[in-house]
Design goal:
heterodimer; A: 264 residues; alpha/beta; Rossmann fold; six-stranded mixed beta sheet; four-stranded antiparallel beta sheet; 10 strands; 36% helix; globular; B: mainly alpha; MetI-like fold; 11 helices; 72% helix; flat
Chain lengths: 264, 296
C-alpha cells in the first residue's frame, strides 16, 4: 500500500518578528485507509500544530501533506475536524449545526429530504437525535462533543481529525464517547487521526500510536503498533497482556526517555 | 413451606447506554402566576409612579407661585390640554397633533438610521476583517464620531440644497459611527473556532457573513444600533429646529418664537417617551437576535 495520507518531511517554523521557533522537524508518517492513528506527546510538543497542518488550518514551512497522492494546503471538508472545545455555533440548534455543514457540502448533490434524513442519521449515530432542537448551551459537554462528531461525520470526510476530542470531559463520559467512536469506526471504517494525552485512550482506540518527542523541534520518536483484536472491550482489555505491554511501552517513552523537562 | 430464592437479575449483554432527555413538567399554577404578576407590577411599576408624582408635586410647588418664569404642571395641563389629550388632531397645515409631528420625525429617523445601520454594518464588517483597515481607519472614525450632529448641518445644507435630505443626512452621519465601530469590534472578536469551522466547510464570503459573522457579532452590533438610535433621535430634534417643516423639533422652535411655553413642555415629554420606546425596541430586538450567542 502506498498510503492514504502521507506526511512528507514536514517542518513547521513559527516566525514572530526576528524570533523563529522551530516547532516540528522532519515529520514523516504514512497512514492507511481505515486506520485509527493516535498522536501522543507532552503538552507543547506540537501535536495540535501537526493536526492543524493536516487540516490545512496552518501551512507547512517545508515538506508536504499528501492525501491520495495530492498535496493539500488549505482546509476542506474531506478532512473534517472535531475540535477540542466542540466549536458548535451557539446560536444554532443541534440540528442546524449539523445542517450548516451538510447543506454546504451536499447542497447540490442531495435533495432537501435526503439531506434531512442524512442529518438525522448522523445524529442517531451519536445518539443525539433526541436533542435536535436544543441549543448547545442547553446540553452537556459530552453531548456537545457528540454533536461535534456528528457534524464532522456528516460531511463524509476522507479523514476525521480529532483534536483531543474528549480532553475536557469527565472520565465516565469520556469512556462512553470512546465506545461510540469505536462503534462508528466499526461500521464506517473511516480513517481517523486523534490527538490525545491519555495513554489508555490511545491504546484502546488506535491501530498505531505515534509518540512525539518534546519540543521545540519535536519530531516522531516512535511508532507503536497496537495489535489488539477488534472489537475491543474495555473490561476484557484490563488484564490483556498485549494491552498492558502497549500501555507500558507508551508510558516508558513518555516518562523515561522523553520526560517533560519544563514546568508545564 | 418452600423458600423462594430470588435470584439477582443477571445484567443483560452490556449495551451502550442510551442518552435520554429529561421531560420538563408543563404544569402551571394559575393562582401563583397571577400573584407573581401582581408582585412584579407592584415592585416595578409602583416606585417610578411614586417618584413621578413626587417630582410633579415639587415642580408645582416651585413654579406654581405668581411670577414664576416657567409654567407649572397645572398651567401646562390647562393651556396645552388639546396637545396632551389628542395627539392626532388636524386643524390646518401647521396646526396638527404632536403624535403626527412625531410621526413625521420618525419617518426621517427611519430613513437616516436605516441607511446608517445598513452602511455601518457592511463597512464595519469589512473594516473588522482587516487589521490594516482597522488600524488606518479607526482613528479617523474616532475623530468623526465626536463631531456634534448640528455641526454637520451647514455642510449638508450646502450639499443637498434642501432641508429634508439634509436632516436625514445629519441623522445618518450622527448615528453611523457607533454602529460601524461596534460592528468592527464585534467582527474582530469572532472566536477563531468559528473561523476554523467556516474554513473547514469552505464557506464563501457571503455565507460566512450571514451564517457566522452576523450572528456572532450580533451583541456588539446591537449595542451600536442602540447607541445609534439614541443619537439619531437626538439629532433629528436639533436638525428640525433649524430646518423647519412639520417635525417635533420645529414645533418646539415655533412654540418658543410664539411664547407657548406649556406646549414646549408637552413636546419635551413626547420626545422623551418616544426616545425611550425607540431605545427599548432596539434593545429588545437585540436580545432576541443575539439569544444564545453569548451563552456557550
Amino acid at each position: 500500500m502506498s498510503g492514504y495520507l502521507k506526511l512528507d518531511h514536514i517542518n513547521k517554523t513559527f516566525r514572530r518578528g526576528a524570533a523563529e521557533t522551530e516547532v516540528l522537524r522532519d515529520i514523516n508518517l504514512t497512514i492507511d485507509k481505515g486506520e485509527i492513528v493516535s498522536i501522543i506527546g507532552h503538552s507543547g510538543c506540537g501535536k495540535s500544530t501537526l493536526l492543524n497542518l493536516i487540516a490545512g488550518l496552518t501551512s507547512v514551512t517545508a515538506g508536504a501533506v499528501l492525501l491520495e497522492e495530492r498535496e493539500v494546503n488549505a482546509p476542506g471538508p474531506e478532512r473534517a475536524v472535531v475540535f477540542q472545545n466542540h466549536s458548535l455555533l451557539p446560536w444554532l440548534t443541534v440540528y442546524d449545526n449539523v445542517a450548516l455543514a451538510v447543506n454546504k457540502v451536499f447542497g447540490s448533490t442531495k435533495s432537501r429530504s435526503e439531506r434531512r434524513d442524512w442529518i438525522m442519521h448522523n445524529l442517531d449515530l451519536v445518539q443525539m437525535s433526541h436533542a435536535r432542537d436544543k441549543r448547545p448551551s442547553e446540553i452537556s459537554g459530552g453531548m456537545k462533543q457528540r454533536v461535534g462528531i456528528a457534524r464532522a461525520l456528516a460531511i463524509e470526510p476522507k479523514i476525521l481529525l480529532l483534536d483531543e476530542p474528549f480532553g475536557a470531559l469527565d472520565a465516565l463520559t469520556r469512556a462512553h464517547l470512546q465506545d461510540s467512536v469505536m462503534q462508528i469506526h466499526a461500521s464506517l471504517k473511516n480513517t481517523m487521526i486523534m490527538i490525545t494525552h491519555d495513554v489508555d485512550e490511545a491504546v484502546l482506540l488506535s491501530d498505531r500510536i505515534v509518540m512525539m518527542t518534546n519540543g521545540p523541534s519535536a519530531t516522531i520518536g516512535e511508532v507503536l503498533d497496537v495489535r489488539l483484536e477488534r472489537p475491543r472491550k474495555r473490561l476484557d482489555l484490563v488484564a490483556d497482556r498485549d494491552y498492558i505491554a502497549a500501555r507500558e511501552a507508551v508510558l516508558k517513552f513518555l516518562y523515561e526517555r522523553h520526560r517533560f523537562v519544563e514546568a508545564a | 413451606m418452600s423458600l423462594a430464592v430470588v435470584k439477582p437479575k443477571q445484567p443483560e449483554q452490556t449495551e451502550p447506554a442510551k442518552v435520554v432527555a429529561l421531560q420538563m413538567k408543563p404544569k402551571r399554577d394559575f393562582k401563583r402566576t397571577a400573584r407573581r404578576l401582581g408582585v412584579y407590577l407592584a415592585s416595578n411599576l409602583l416606585p417610578p409612579l411614586v417618584c413621578a408624582t413626587l417630582l410633579l408635586l415639587l415642580w408645582q410647588i416651585v413654579f406654581g407661585r405668581a411670577g414664576a418664569t416657567l409654567p407649572s404642571p397645572v398651567q401646562v395641563w390647562k393651556e396645552a390640554q388639546d396637545l396632551i389629550v389628542d395627539p392626532f388632531f388636524v386643524n390646518g397645515p401647521q396646526d396638527i397633533g404632536l403624535g403626527l409631528r412625531v410621526w413625521t420625525s420618525l419617518q426621517r429617523v427611519a430613513i437616516g438610521f436605516g441607511l446608517a445601520a445598513f452602511v455601518g454594518i457592511l463597512v464595519g464588517a469589512t473594516v473588522g476583517q482587516s487589521i490594516w483597515a482597522m488600524r488606518g481607519l479607526d482613528p479617523i472614525f474616532q475623530i468623526l464620531r465626536t463631531v456634534p450632529p448640528l455641526a454637520w448641518l451647514p455642510i449638508s445644507l450646502a450639499a443637498f440644497r434642501d432641508s429634508s435630505p439634509s436632516a436625514i443626512f445629519v441623522i445618518f452621519i450622527t448615528s453611523i459611527w457607533p454602529i460601524l465601530i461596534n460592528t468592527a469590534v464585534g467582527v474582530r472578536n469572532i472566536p477563531q473556532d468559528y473561523r476554523n469551522v467556516a474554513e473547514v466547510l469552505r464557506l464563501n464570503t457571503f455565507e460566512f457573513f450571514w451564517k457566522i459573522m452576523l450572528p456572532s457579532a450580533a451583541p456588539y452590533i446591537f449595542t451600536g444600533l442602540r447607541i445609534g438610535i439614541g443619537l439619531a433621535w437626538l439629532a433629528i430634534v436639533a436638525a428640525e429646529m433649524l430646518t423647519g417643516g412639520v417635525g417635533i423639533g420645529f414645533f418646539i422652535w415655533d412654540a418658543w418664537n410664539s411664547s407657548r411655553l406649556p406646549d414646549i413642555v408637552v413636546a419635551l415629554f413626547y420626545i422623551g417617551i418616544v426616545g425611550f420606546v425607540l431605545d427599548r425596541i432596539v434593545g429588545a430586538l437585540g436580545s432576541l437576535a443575539s439569544r444564545g450567542t453569548s451563552a456557550n
